[in-house]
Amino acid sequence: MSRFFSARYAELDAYVPGEQPKDKKYIKLNTNESPFPPSPSVAEAVSLEAGELMLYSDPESRALTRAVAELYDVGEGSVLMTNGSDEILNFAFMAFSDADHPIAFADVTYGFYPVFAALNAIPCEIIPLRDGFKLDYKDYVGINKNIVIANPNAPTGMAISVRQIEEIVRSNPNNVVIIDEAYVDFGAESAVPLTKKYDNLIVTMTFSKSRSMAGARLGFGIANPALIRDMNTIKYSTNPYNVNRLTSAAGIAAIKDNAYYMDNAKIIAENREYTREKLTSLGFEVLPSLTNFIFARTPEVSGEDLYLGLKQRGILVRHFTKERIKDYNRITIGRREQMDALILAIEDILKEKRK
Ligand code: PMP
Prior knowledge:
It contains 10 helices and 12 strands. By secondary structure, it is α/β, with parallel strands linked by helices. The chain folds into 2 domains: 7-36 and 259-354, Alpha-Beta Complex (Aspartate Aminotransferase, domain 1), CATH 3.90.1150.10; 40-257, Aspartate Aminotransferase, domain 2 (3-Layer(aba) Sandwich). A 7-stranded mixed β-sheet has the order 2-8-7-6-5-3-4, with helices on both faces. The protein has a 3-stranded antiparallel β-sheet with strand order 9-10-12. The protein has a two-stranded parallel sheet with strand order 1-11. 4'-deoxy-4'-aminopyridoxal-5'-phosphate (PMP) binds at residues 84-86, 110, 150, 154, 180, 182, 206, 208, 214, 219.
């Protein structure tokens, strides 16, 4: 820390993204990216748009907003496009929470929530997941606090139902509920239709997972237009051109190819169940998942040793050191042959350990 760093950030523990080592070519199962490239029309759209880069992007992202609104069957005024879904989450934290309006979230969930809270000096109410890392919706009913829930949750992979989300939203009418649906396309049910019925719900989504565009940085929020206007006030006070021209063109092209991405999501879900069965038969405990990752542990090898053993064998997975989850690894689901390589490497690690 330099002597100039503001005292208000002195205690800030910044978010730590998954590692991206360049020392050799790894099978990357550590940051929940898609193993499939974007559809070919995305590259075409981007290269056409490159000729326009001397001009700023549309601060309202109108064409992209229209395409997203149409796909999700909501009004254009209910959509805000952002630089990844991390940005809409930050806008939502900034716009609706403060020292007098704390935010509640699970003890085991997306690691950026406590960082956004700390960055904006927002007090947090941490609600521990129940046994088996289950999120009990009743823990959020009528708590009279702003709430953020990743649904499905990360890194655990499990989801609650839309009926349960509705109960949370309905019972906290004077608070904002953010449902982070980064992984919803891999099998969970979306709460987007509820945004038409409730004025205190924001659903956030991303193009980083099912839509193979993590490197383009594109996300969005869907909510009642009044909430969208408030978040736009934050956007125009920080970064009006938050979605660049290339990303916007890529996003519009990707939405036209929606079927390709939804087919890929189905393949990932199949590979997930395949991997879950294989690991279970090797003695692993694997949490049920509706995402593009699984959360797994074995009594035979510590979480850290498994992570290190896999890394040594050219496979990256995500290990968290937090006490409650340190025995586990979060493993992104890739193509079938990548999962077979993972299983072989794990068999090798177990064999070595059993010697
Ligand atoms: N929410 C959750 C639960 C995530 O795991 C991620 C991925 N790190 C994000 C949001 C943000 O993703 P992005 O900014 O790439 O849209």
